[in-house]
Design brief:
It is a single chain. The protein is an alpha/beta fold. A hairpin with a 4-residue loop joins strand 6 and strand 7. A seven-stranded mixed sheet has the order 2-10-9-8-5-3-4, sandwiched between helices. A three-stranded antiparallel sheet has the order 11-12-14. The protein starts with 5 loop residues before the first strand and ends with a helix. The structure holds pyridoxal-5'-phosphate. The site of pyridoxal-5'-phosphate has 11 residues, from helix 3.
Length: 361
């Protein structure tokens, strides 16, 4: 086996090789501290520089004005499913949710534990979540409208976001954050577990706008309050130091090596285009998402039989391509081609798929 395989894992997922190499090179003596990043104080100047740089890079990549705050929390995106409604839905207030798959369904379930006023205003459940709903009517007066920007399991993604008539959008961007240029001005809150497009598992990025922060409850346990974490710049308690450090390196890689979000978006379009064009040209492989709802990050497809799918995944693994099995809840195959998955990996996958259909099709 070569040292590193082509990694199509859905998350935790591939990290950029230069980032891994930098971590390796700096591990024993981080910035001349004589300690590794795993051993230094979160209150040290060396770590605060990392944290502040990560915050600044999120802001510069998205072009965020000062009214947006960036914090790094723990508990995964799953904690945001309840933390957001807990903070924002004071008694009597309501929120809109769009259901586009497993993760949206979970977000709705958690929100309903905290509020009786959760409106599911659109859903693609009628066709097994293979599309992104259109022509959505939002409920006037809702505090926010929640959606999942990329559906990791079903392989769908919002190509553009709906006009909410002024209701702040809230998005779970766990599986497509920073995959393309995006105007965040309609968004009041964005969250993303890091382990797909940003860094390692164990840290969650939250971006919150001042007007939503002002509406948050203050009578919450400190760790569950956005106001705590914003006012303390993610340093209320010991933050996930190593995760934030890796995120900072990944952000630097996007900005300085890739060339920013325009370039990142072009590269992701090229990768996804290559794979979808190939799938569309072969009856043997059937993409599962509607064409206009396809994800650039998670490409889901079926083969004629489950046996062939199993054979496909095993044969790919033998050729050093990992992570192609679909989510256990849906079966089939899935290639997760996040930011850090190189074009070369997708080209290699397509060559393998051509050969597979030639011999088994
Ligand atoms: C879109 C989306 N939201 C939420 C989650 C759950 O994230 P976490 O494991 O960080 O709680 C996932 C995990 O795969 C996901 O893909």
């Amino acid at each position: 086996m070569t040292e590193r395989i082509y990694n199509f894992n859905p998350g935790p997922a591939a990290l950029p090789l230069p980032v891994l190499e930098e971590i390796q090179a700096d591990l024993l003596n981080f910035k001349n501290t004589g300690m590794s990043i795993l051993e230094i104080s979160h209150r040290s100047g060396a770590f605060e520089a990392v944290l502040n740089d990560a915050v600044a890079r999120v802001k510069s990549l998205f072009g965020l004005p000062d009214s947006y705050h960036v914090v790094f929390l723990q508990g995964g995106a799953s904690t945001q499913f309840f933390m957001a409604p807990m903070n924002l839905l004071k008694p009597g207030l309501s929120a809109d949710y769009v259901n586009t798959g497993t993760w949206s369904t979970k977000a709705i379930k958690e929100a309903r534990l905290l509020s009786q006023n959760i409106h599911v205003i659109a859903s693609s459940e009628d066709r097994n979540f293979c599309y992104i709903p259109k022509n959505i009517q939002f409920t006037s007066g809702s505090v926010y409208a929640h959606l999942t920007s990329n559906n990791t399991i079903k392989g769908t993604q919002w190509a553009e976001f709906p006009d909410t008539d002024g209701i702040p959008l809230m998005a779970d961007m766990s599986s497509d954050i920073l995959c393309r240029p995006l105007d965040l001005s309609p968004f009041g809150l964005v969250y993303a577990g890091a382990q797909k497009n940003l860094g390692p598992a164990g840290v969650t990025l939250v971006i919150i706008r001042q007007d939503l922060l002002d509406r948050c409850r203050v009578d919450l346990p400190s760790m569950l309050s956005y106001q705590t974490h914003v006012s303390k710049n993610s340093l209320y308690n010991t933050p996930p130091v190593f995760g934030i450090y890796v995120i900072q390196l990944v952000l630097k890689w996007i900005e300085e090596t890739i060339g920013g979000l325009e370039a990142m978006g072009r590269l992701n379009e090229q990768k996804a285009g290559l794979l979808y064009d190939f799938l569309d040209g072969e009856d043997f492989y059937q993409p599962t998402a509607d064409r206009d709802s396809r994800s650039m990050m998670n490409v889901t497809f079926r083969l004629p039989t489950v046996d062939l799918e199993n054979e496909f995944v095993a044969a790919a693994q033998k050729q050093e391509m990992g992570g192609l099995k679909g989510h256990r809840s849906v079966g089939g195959c899935r290639a997760s081609i996040y930011n850090a998955v190189a074009l070369e990996a997708v080209e290699t996958l397509v060559s393998f798929m051509k050969e597979f259909v030639r011999t088994r099709g």
